[in-house]
């Protein structure tokens, strides 16, 4: 299910950051490859976006994928 959120933080040197979901739930991890696979450049912190939360392939919890800018 697609969710609304805001890019809270992104470390370009390390290639990851966190998205704050609009529903107030726990922040989600986002990796640079999620932006690359979505064809979206990493926006500035605070940017509104939509995403799908899915299980990390390595079993580390949820992460954002299929990102779109709002």
What's the count of strands?
5
Radius of gyration: 11 Å
Number of helices: 1
Largest sheet: 5 strands, antiparallel
Low-pLDDT parts are none
- Written as H for each helix and E for each strand, in order along the chain, the element string is EEEHEE
What structural category arises from helix and sheet content?
A: mainly beta
Averaged pLDDT: 95
Helical residue percent band: 10-25%
Q: Terminal Cα separation, in Å?
A: 16 Å
The fraction of residues assigned to DSSP E strands is: over 45%
Shape: globular
Strand order, main sheet: write it out.
Answer: 3-2-1-4-5
Tell me about this structure.
It is found in: Cytoplasm. Its main location: cytoplasm. GO terms for molecular function: mRNA 3'-UTR binding. Keywords: Cytoplasm, Phosphoprotein. With 70 residues, the chain is mainly β. 10% of the residues lie in helices and 51% in strands. It has a 5-stranded antiparallel β-sheet with strand order 3-2-1-4-5, covered by helices on one side. Strand 4 (48-55) and strand 5 (62-69) form a beta hairpin. The longest helix has 7 residues, at 32-38. The protein is globular. The mean pLDDT is 95.
């Amino acid at each position: 299910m697609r969710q609304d959120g805001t890019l809270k933080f992104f470390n370009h040197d390390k290639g990851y950051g966190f998205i704050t979901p609009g529903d107030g739930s726990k922040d989600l991890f986002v990796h640079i490859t999620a932006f690359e696979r979505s064809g979206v450049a990493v926006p500035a912190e605070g940017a509104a976006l939509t995403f799908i939360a899915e299980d990390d392939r390595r079993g580390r919890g949820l992460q954002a994928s299929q990102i779109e800018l709002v």
